[in-house]
Amino acid sequence: MIAPCRVAAAHPGPYRCVRCGDAHQREERLIPHDLWERDRARFVRDLDLPRSCETFLQHLEAALSAGLEAVAEAVADGAMTIDKNMIVLPKAKPALEDPRLARISQTG
Fold first, then answer.
1. pLDDT at residue 51, as a whole number
2. What secondary structure letter does DSSP report for 10?
3. Cα gap 104→86, rounded to integer Å
4. Helix (H, G, I), strand (E, B), or coil: what is residue 86?
């Protein structure tokens, strides 16, 4: 079984770190093997990961199915379209102006 932390960090090549902005290589993003083996149960618990790949995949599949159903419903309702394998949303309409904001801008 591939460790979940290793699956999550499987993106190849460098990436920009959200915390420090530096480029890091894939190996730097992995939990070291000896640390993973020693503290695996704690990592699984702390990261709220399921203990088996099958359970993880079942949750992932359920979320994917729900998302695809929501997209299909939105397409059927006309809230979005799919063109050339891309989701197309209608242009956003301007929000109605709140009369309370008009009073504030006039006084200020």
1. 81
2. -
3. 42
4. strand
In this structure, what are the phi and psi dihedrals at residue 94, rounded to the nearest 5 degrees?
Answer: -65, 145
Question: Which has the closest alpha carbon to 14: 33, 27, 3?
Answer: 27
For 43, the token pair is: 């990592």
DSSP, collapsed to helix, strand or coil, labels residue 56 as: helix
Query: From first to last of its 108 residues, what are the pLDDT tens digits of the chain?
Result: 444 434 344 445 555 666 666 666 666 667 888 998 999 899 888 988 888 889 989 999 999 999 999 999 999 999 999 999 999 999 888 777 777 777 676 655
Domain segments of the chain: what residues? 1-49, 51-89
Q: Cβ contacts of residue 1 below 8 Å, gap of 6+?
A: 53
- 90 contact partners, CB below 8 Å, separation of at least 6: 79, 80
Helix count (H) and strand count (E) of the chain? 5, 4
Instruction: Give the tokens for residue 69.
Output: 């159903």
